[in-house]
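Hi R.,

As promised on Friday, here is the backbone we talked about, encoded as C-alpha cells. Could you run it through your design pipeline when you get a chance and send me back a sequence?
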C-alpha cells in the first residue's frame, strides 16, 4: 500500500502532551479514517490514477438514488457524508469496499494538513489584511477606513486585485510540514504539533511527505 499518500479525517480538538524532557507540547488531535474505497480510477479509463474514498458513514435512507447505486456497486449498504479523491501511483492493489486506516499510509515525521479555515464573515481591511489605522484623535475622520483605492482621471476605475473589505476565512487552507508527535493506529488518532485549519469536527485531509 505504499502508493497511498493521504487519508481523510476530522479534527477532534487541541490538547497538550509532555515530551521526554518534561516540556509541554501543544498538539491537535485528528481522527484519520477509516476510509472506504468507493471507486478506482485509472489512466486507461479516466486519464489519471486515483481512488475515490468515503469517510463518515451515512444511512442508506439519506442517500439520493445515484448515491445509492454508487454505494451498491461498491458492495456497501450505506453511503458517506464526505467523498473525495486521492491520487495514487497504482490503484490496482485496492478494491472497492476495502477499508483503509492509518496502517495503510506511510506517515513519516512531517505531514501536510488540508482543511477549511473558520469563517469570520465580512471584515474590514484592518482585520482582513492588517492595514494600519488612521489617527484616533477626536477630529480625525479616518480611524479605520482604507483610504484611496483608485485614480480619478485615468484609468477612472479600481484596479483588479486591490485589497478591500470582504468575506474573511471559510476557505481551503493548508498547513505544511506539521510535526507528527504521536501515532495511534488502533484508535485512528494522529497527533500533530500546533494548530490546524478549521473548527472541531471539521473535515481534514492529511498528505504524507
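Update: got your reply. Pasting your designed sequence below so it's all in one thread:
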Amino acid at each position: 500500500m505504499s502508493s497511498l499518500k493521504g487519508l481523510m479525517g476530522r479534527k477532534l480538538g487541541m490538547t497538550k502532551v509532555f515530551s521526554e524532557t518534561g516540556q509541554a507540547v501543544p498538539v491537535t488531535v485528528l481522527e484519520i479514517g477509516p476510509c472506504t474505497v468507493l471507486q478506482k480510477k485509472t489512466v486507461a479509463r479516466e486519464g489519471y490514477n486515483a481512488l475515490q474514498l468515503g469517510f463518515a458513514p451515512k444511512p442508506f435512507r439519506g442517500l439520493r438514488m445515484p448515491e445509492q447505486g454508487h454505494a451498491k456497486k461498491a458492495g456497501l449498504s450505506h453511503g458517506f457524508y464526505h467523498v473525495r479523491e486521492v491520487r495514487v501511483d497504482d490503484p490496482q492493489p485496492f478494491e472497492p469496499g476495502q477499508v483503509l486506516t492509518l496502517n495503510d499510509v506511510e506517515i513519516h515525521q512531517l505531514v501536510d494538513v488540508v482543511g477549511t479555515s473558520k469563517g469570520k464573515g465580512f471584515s474590514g481591511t484592518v482585520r482582513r489584511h492588517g492595514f494600519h489605522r488612521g489617527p484616533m484623535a477626536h477630529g480625525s475622520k479616518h480611524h479605520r477606513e482604507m483610504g484611496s483605492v483608485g485614480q480619478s482621471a485615468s484609468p477612472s476605475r479600481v484596479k483588479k486585485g486591490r485589497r478591500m473589505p470582504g468575506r474573511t476565512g471559510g476557505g481551503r487552507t493548508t498547513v505544511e510540514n506539521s510535526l507528527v508527535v504521536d501515532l495511534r493506529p488502533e484508535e485512528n488518532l494522529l497527533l500533530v504539533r500546533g494548530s490546524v485549519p478549521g473548527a472541531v469536527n471539521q473535515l481534514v485531509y492529511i498528505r504524507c511527505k
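One thing I noticed while checking it: The chain has two domains: 1-26+105-129+164-209, 35-100.

Thanks again,
M.
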